[in-house]
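In response to a reviewer's request, we include the raw inputs and outputs for one of the modeled complexes. The two entities were modeled together in a single run.
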Amino acid sequence: MSNSLNRLVNGAIATLSHEVMPHLSEPAVKASAASVLQVLNLLALRAAWNPDCLAAQLTVRSRALSRLPTLMKRMPAIPPVPTLRPDGSSAALQQALDEADAYVSSLVRWLDIGRIGITTEQRTAIKRWIAGYGKAAASIELEYTPRSQLGALTDTSV
Amino acid sequence: MTIFHEKRVVSPATWDFDVATIVSRLEAYLSAQLACPIQIEDFVRLTGGLSWITGIFVVRTALPHDLNGRVLVVKIGSPRGLMAPYSAEPQAMAMRIFADYPEVPVPNLLWCSDDLAILGAPFLITSKVEGAELNPFVPGIGLRNPGDRDNIGSQFADVLGAMHAVDPGDDHGQARSGGARYCGVEQVDSWQRRYESWASKPYPVIELAASWLRRHSPAAARVVVVHGDYRIGNFLVHAGRITAVLDWEMAHFGDPHEDLSWAMMPEVRLTELISHGDFIARYQARSGLQVLPESMRYYRILTLYKLVMINLGGIAGFERGGQDLRMACMGFLVPLYLMRLARALEEVV
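The model returned the following structure tokens for the whole complex.
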């Protein structure tokens, strides 16, 4: 739910070097900005997303998915819950997250087709579970997201 | 002599085009339109928004002309803007319709085109209207004179009521096509098309929301021109009066409840101007429309769904080469709105 790290760091470098630094006049401030730029350049070469963040997101999803089989008892031909056992790398964790979300999204479409043999109560229970899954996924993502500063981003006052 | 001023720049990164090139193309275009050589002076770019690029300039004509010395506004739909690709048509459509209704103040549309050969992107050129925008994202909403609060709040309701009282007519889309019209479904279809091009992976809450919204859309009691982004921040205020409603890029024919729900979402601080109860009461009196609680419930969910989509658009636009880092920062809002959307869906599914 965010831009790729590479795009973010390079975007920050471009903004600082092309849009901010040319407008700085105080030598000490220019030097400070130049040092920030150097740090960003280092991050561009070395940084990767923290796997702990991705692992925490996957744990939340796996916990939610583990409750699904009970919910789906006696439902015909429901798509099987995927097994998510990635190695600890960021790439594998991200892939597992996407796989979990793709599966839950497919449940919405599965319900939409108008399945025979599912009661209204069962349909409602799965939809509530999907909403709860989304809530849990958003909640853990928020823990790893800085608070938005929309006021500062849109402020045109001089 | 052409003079370029770049002042009050908040984030010049929104300016995807070289200013000198834009001005030179504007001069060529306006010279042709006015059938006399013109020059552009005092070009100022404004960058409060994250979407269309806005510039203000003075026209100098070589021959006597009504426009000589006039201050005009150009809006350019950058291909790297938040909701690109753009068309000038929705904004132009709205401005043309409301040009005859002073109770819905809009800038005077002079020229517009989607022809990329002219400025490099769709654009509109309008008159400049006196006034300043408020900012709903800061405490106090940037209101300079608190004594204007009640007056502006009342006008905000009256303008929307007047807007929705206007019959857009048969020659403006299919506003009066026969039978019930389920405008919510049309909106979801339109946003889902964007979602498919923006999202790099599926979002279960968005899928669930789209499914629910498609199945529960109320029939519109009246199909009107919906502004699509009617809120504090998208109108000008001068001397205690709303002088123009701006930013019509999401305008479309739809259900009036869509604008009401949007204007009342908590993050745009309507209650800094008028209470929700007074807003609805004045709106109903002015529009002649009855606000339906069931429709409001539906459009509150559509509002949350749109908020997720717009901020997802920020991530997509920046990932695809957009130069404004603020678009990436908008992505920080996606989990917040997904959370609120999921909570709302839990109550209705």
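As requested, we also summarize the result in words. The CA atoms of residues 114 and 122 of chain B lie 4 Å apart. DSSP finds eleven helices and ten strands in chain B.
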